[in-house]
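As a point of orientation, let us examine one representative protein, giving the amino acid sequence and backbone structure tokens.
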Amino acid sequence: MNKNKSNELAVILVSGGMDSLVTAAIAHQLHHRLAFLHLNYGQKTEKKELQSFHKIADFYNVPTEFREVIDVSFLRQIGGSSLTDDKIAVKEYKGESKEIPDSYVPFRNTHIIAMAVSWSEIIGATKIYIGAVYEDSSGYPDCRPSYYQAYNQLIREGTKAQNIEIITPVIYMKKEEIVKKAVELKAPLHASWSCYANEDEACGICDSCALRLRGFARAHLEDPIPYKQRPNYT
């Protein structure tokens, strides 16, 4: 047994994407016991993301009783995002922009974390890991460090336990650094899925695919998942 690991139970928010995979790998280095949480919110790649969630959970030997999948399809009912609304097409990557993209799901992370906090109180977890990325993200407001600072204060104010904390281990990392960290920690990159549009082959042109492919290119590595096209985003 690794004596440097904590015995605290940690909840990991695992979407199935590369950022959450590396977050899970980091948590695995720090904790003996992991609990994985996944949300189906009506996203267009819901089935593929759930499949990736279970593959990653299998890799890290997460027990069935510590795998929680919650349906929050009301986010699809509300719409307003290209990830959940059939009336809004997933856009092709157009380069860096300060505008919030239409792939932003309104207040999604707040709902996700709230459920993670509730579950943590039930199972006795003290840490909640989320793979939010600030500098290399698509400009989502719920990926800012200040958002997580405020949320941690809310948790302290609004929970019985008062000892639950959100951890954001990759928030200041660029995508190429996340790729390199995945390789360093021997995380199963082939099991992850980042595409916003497709479930068979990644499209290669949505914001998420573009940032992922650029990360691999800058890390001088090849992404192991299948793509319909692999543009050069270096």
